Amino acid sequence: MVKKVLVTGGAGYIGSHTVVELFRSGYEPLILDDYRNSEVSVIGRIKQITGKAPEVILGDVCDEDLVNEIFQNHKLSGVIHFAAYKAVGESVEKPLKYYSNNISGLLSILKPICEMGNIPFVFSSSCTVYGEPQGLKEVNEQTPRSIPTSPYGYTKWLGEQIIRDAFLAQKELRLMNLRYFNPIGAHPSGLIGELPIGKPNNLVPFITQTAAGIHKELVIFGNNYPTIDGTCVRDYIHVVDLAEAHVKAIDYLLLQQKGCRETVNIGTGTGTSVLELVNTFKDENKIDLKFSFGPERPGDVIEIFANVNYAKSLLGWTSKNDTRDAVRDAWNWEKSIRNIK
Ligand code: UD1
User: Is the Cβ atom of 88 under 6 angstroms away from ligand 1?
Assistant: First the structure.
């Protein structure tokens, strides 16, 4: 029997790529999304890629009645919870919006999971829970979490805490936190990718929009950090690899006979500086990119990248794409939405 997986936020950036990978692995994704940060056209594009149109329930994950109805009307084999706000800067300006949506959404979906007790659940967490790593820049899952630098970060931190406490009270639950590092890139088909609303805050959408002529130049935030070239270092993970990690997470949880709670880093294991990424973008796409150095961005972590041993040993997952693949696919996607040849 085909296994149905509920994907909240399934029309969004990471969600849509995960829906594609679920189809490819024989699952039947069921999307819950209200398109507040995505577009309905994504569904047709998923069909173009996979030959299958996912079923979509239009609605808000915070709507507990709707969520309960979904659990009653569908036999779910798993739940992946993406639907949440994710702009760090906005979360500082509108903290209650972030706490209210991200925490209510998680509680709304976790309640029926706890009531039913046996449905695997995967939570979108973030490397933001590590804060600025002390000493070693390569962090593993045992690296202590630190105080988040933004309300957004706190919602992920608190999300993991809620999941931990739910598990301590109910040991039969099967739960997994995936701590994403920096997801970038797009589907190699050029049919789905990130659709930032307004001026992007994240690096790669800003790079591709600058290359497309929408912004005059990229401003690199800080070039005097104690890193390889003075710019910040991150672990950039291709979104298709990240999507595959979610399928592996569901595969793993479905195989468990007993309850479990796991936390897994999802990155490449390699640190890349902002300047290195910019140069890779220029080199791979044979395109110039104007940039200048500006002041440091408040709250930025200097350097962090993932230790990915646990992802490999627990899930049998490693990333397949590198930053070259990711910047090529990101540019391909930007060109396709702007009709650039
Ligand atoms: C942060 C969080 C990540 C979260 C993401 C959501 C950390 C370590 N990471 O990513 O968990 O999912 O926000 O938005 O907390 N940059 C520029 N110029 C720009 C834009 C960015 O130089 O115009 C630089 C930043 O200073 C940073 C790097 O590019 O060094 C990556 O920035 P960004 O893409 O915003 O991601 P993070 O802040 O690392």
Answer: yes
